[in-house]
Amino acid sequence: MPVITASGEEAVVTAWFVDERGSCTDGQLLAEVQAEKISAEVEAPGAGYVVDRIAVNDPVPQGGVICRIVETIDQAEPEGGVESREKTSTRGVVASPSAKRVARELGVDLAALTGTGPGGRITESDVRDAVGGEGQKSGSLRSVIARNMRRSHAETAAVTLHSTVDLGEEAPPQITATIVKTVAETLPDHPLLNGRRDGDVFHAADKAQISLAIQTEEGLVAPVVRDASDKTVEEVATAIQALAERAHAGTLTAEDYEGGTFAVTNLGAYGVDGFTPIIVLPQVAILGVGALRQVPALDDAGGMSARYQVVLSLTFDHAFVDGAPAAEFLQSVGEALAGRG
After folding, report:
1. How many helices (H) and strands (E) are present in the chain, helices listed first?
2. Is 318 among the catalytic positions?
């Protein structure tokens, strides 16, 4: 299993392209693997026979063993250090090629199925019916994300501050892009929140790179909106749209996640105001954006006017940042946003 993400958490094999005990050539594509929505391919480091494959969707530490390659099939007996999770009972099972492929992708043991095809042949429908028409792939990836979320909760002294920001009589046309750009411009003046931790040591970054939470069918991802402080709001919005499209298509790469120093997440579209975002490790802070609301407010002359407001929720790791510096940053972001109105 290659090391795919900086956190080095567990990953899964999502597909095998060489059968158990099948032959391979040097550089041949063996498997597709994934960690936290980042996909990578594994190529054979040499020619031989693939044995002791781990099962599709079984979590494996990044850098761990997913199979062995032996020179001759006579060497195919499992070694003590590698547990073969694919049962040899699948040998002799009569199944269509598509059924075998789908079974590999969904982690289904063909030997446990009864085929409905001619002569008891297992069909693709048999495999999909065995998992209720739903693949197990997303469930395993969901469990990886869940472990990372629990790790963030366990390893941070998380505190959340809320602030209601007055945006004026006109709402920003691109609220998420506006906030991402504003945060990127504000962070250099608040270095305690802009950077990454390494154990108990915090390394401040020279420039803010904003990770943006994007919801997909398989879960939440947080690719980086590069150099938002150098772009116009429209350019930031275009960059966000491109990342969102790639996130939903499943084509984000490891590079898209690298280098984030602070995160932003927006639940405003769901009518949420204040909430408690979870810090994206190894960062130390994340800003939550609530719903944009038009509310009546008193103006300086004592009259009533309709103004737009938004609740910002800043979660920070109190082990690295005290409350006052965090509050100062939240205040600065609010003032900068009010100034754009």
Report:
1. 6, 18
2. yes
